[in-house]
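Reply to dn_fold:

You asked what the input looked like. This is it:
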Amino acid sequence: MSNKSVSLHIDDQLITVPEGTTILEAAQSMNIEIPTLCWAENLTPVNVCRLCVVEAEGARTLIPACSRTCEDGAAVKTNTDRVRENRRMVLELLDSANDLSQSDNLQELISDYGADSDRYTDPVKTTTPPKVEDDLFVRAYERCVLCYKCVEACGDDAQFTFAIAVAGRGFDAKISTEHDVPLPESACVYCGNCIGVCPTNALQFKTEFDMREAANWRPEEQSVTETICSYCGVGCTLELHTQDNQIVKVTSPADHSVTSGHLCVKGRFGWQYVQAPVYRAPSSDSEQSAK
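and this is what came back:
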């Protein structure tokens, strides 16, 4: 980032920031909330969700706060009627075409902006069943909003595996492996970084999926404990999510200096040994019966 500074007004408040700072970053430093979906602090902005748009004086169109850098002398409004109407429409379109029921953040935004997807008389809801191809994670396309976060995390923002990308166009667009091969046959290394950035649970831990299917997923009763991964000397910080004294999933802080929220397959999925079944020696009666 440049040593130069720029000054601008955001919601009538003057702020001076280093040149290259985005409007979103400047607003966050002022405790001004701008909703985001495709943005994450550990990924490159891709400008596809349009939830973070703001109104800039002299601009014909609304601009994305996540990627537009601050300009000296600019005047930006983050919550005008035009901005709120745009965000409400985006939320309604997303909700009319996708299952957003497992995204607490989007549900809050839908409520805050008064979004009503029932206004659309013919919602294009998908009915694709979840893809369960292994014991690690599940892909539920009906919850995918094409935010590109998983593609970025799998690519040059984190893993450099490039196992997944957007395939198809228009209404047929979806996240897919190359030639739509099963995940175990793809280049996927099962780091799970795509799960770590997914905002809608379209990519989900198999443990969470199974617990939800059994109506036993209770996030309000879960606790999070930080520890250091024991597999190697890198020193990745793990967040162990536990319910009923059992680990149900593992994440890492997005702002951590070592991981930036990203882990390898061992760190994210290699925790079963902590709660391995206890071996019980057969009783004498059982041994006799076996004989």
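The longest strand covers residues 237-243.
Hope that clears it up.
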